Amino acid sequence: MKAMTPRTRTPLVLASFPALAGGAAILSGVCAVLTLSCSSTTNTRIGIDAPPFSDQSFGSVGDYLDHRCGSLDCHGQPGRNLRIWGCEGMRLDAGMIPVCNRTVPGGGRTTVSEHQATYRSLVGLEPQVMTEVFNGCNNQLAEAGTALYPPGSSCHPELLTFVQKARGTQAHKGGQLICLTPPCPPAVPNPSYPLMTSGGTVMADPQDVCIVSWLEGATNVAACQQAESIPTYPSDASTE
Amino acid sequence: MRARGLLLVSVPWLLALAACQDAVHDEQVTNLGPEAPGVSPGPDHRPGQPCTVCHGGNGPAKVKFTLAGTVFMDWAATMPAVGAELQFEDANGNTYHVTTNQAGNFYLQPGDWSPTFPVSVPLLSYSSSGGSATTQVMTTNDNRDGSCASCHGLTPSANSPGPIYVKTPGADGG
Questions:
Q1: What DSSP state is assigned to residue A195?
Q2: Closest residue in B to A94 (Cα–Cα)
Q3: What is the pLDDT of residue A179?
Q4: In the Cβ-directed half-sphere of A165, how many Cα atoms lie within 13 Å?
Q5: What is the rounded CA–CA span in Å between residue B164 and residue B88?
Q6: Does A93 sit within 8 Å of B143, measured CB to CB?
């Protein structure tokens, strides 16, 4: 994914020069400043190293994000930095509505275009950090030959702000969503995804496994699907 | 010299005055349109509109609301749900009950309840005259603002699931 660098602008500074009496001097100064303000860097592009987009690799991640984070009052709004599109929140197609049931006029499952729009928003949040995290995690995958959870020493998803907010290590208006180790705060589910390790089966948070595995380049679809089954709010809402 | 002094004094005031204008808010108010024919400003007016655009403290309404909205009987928002009961719970666990009026509207003023967002709606209940009762739960929190219609617009769209309505058996929609 490539992103445009923002055009730089020189601030317009108005200053008075008592020694330079006369409008011509002021006028020429203003013109000079205006000329400077029009100069810009060349239209360079920066690259973002991130897990490549495909609906197979990101679709289940996008569905989980839509379910847990993408409601219309949260990240399902165009004004948010992290924007999430999907059938449980903001739709990309103006002819669709936030209803997943396709039998309802305008309703329907999250589309590939919506997954891609969410992906672009997510990987574009912190281009440099995403690049660093993905390269570390992807190298780990290459070396180990398989995704690791918890990740190894070269994979640091915790550097990403969206991971910090979900884990509750940085202030988040939506609160902590992921709990790595019990005891977990009220309304945050206990780790429930079974992971096979050399020491036996341990329970992990399926949301975290989903995100980390995607960053490693080997999405754990089963974990993402289990994460998607976590009720949005309240805990018994799914029984409605 | 005197004119120049006057100019120097007046320009900052004009700039300050201009800075007080909120073009975005003004546009939001304008977009609400005029009052419906035969309905005066009051508890029954503008059902289904985002109440806190005007009643949020930035005017033009003088009365401020902390939470306000409308409940309808159907997805098409053709009939108000009169006497529907809503229960709110704020981030601190405080709760408040309110009942809709004859227009389906409800509103809370700061003296009634000033919740800490996010607010959840763990219960919307409605009992018909025939005695059958329905109960619903809003499946997401309200992290946004005090207007239900900020998300629940009168017409379903890419950014709105449509109005709040009483789900009856066989009703369609979301």
A1: E
A2: B158
A3: 94
A4: 11
A5: 15
A6: no
pLDDT of residue A32: 65
The letter for the amino acid at A184 is: C
How much is the average pLDDT of B61-88? 94
Residue at A102: amino acid letter: R
How confident is the model at residue A52, as a pLDDT?
A: 95
Of B137, B143, B173, the CB nearest to A234: B137
What are the residue ranges in chain A where pLDDT is below 70?
A: 1-43, 232-240
Look up residue A85 and give its DSSP letter. Answer: B
CA distance B28 to B130: 40
Residue identified by tokens 């730089």 is: A8
Q: What is the DSSP string of A215-234?
A: HHT---HHHHHHHHTS-SSS
Q: Is the dihedral of CA B45, B134, B160, A188 positive or negative?
A: positive
B-facing residues of A in 145-184 (CB < 8 A) are 173-174
**More confident: B89 or A35:** B89
The reported pTM is 0.76
Q: How far apart are CA A120 and CA A2, in angstroms?
A: 10
Structure confidence at residue A8 (pLDDT): 39
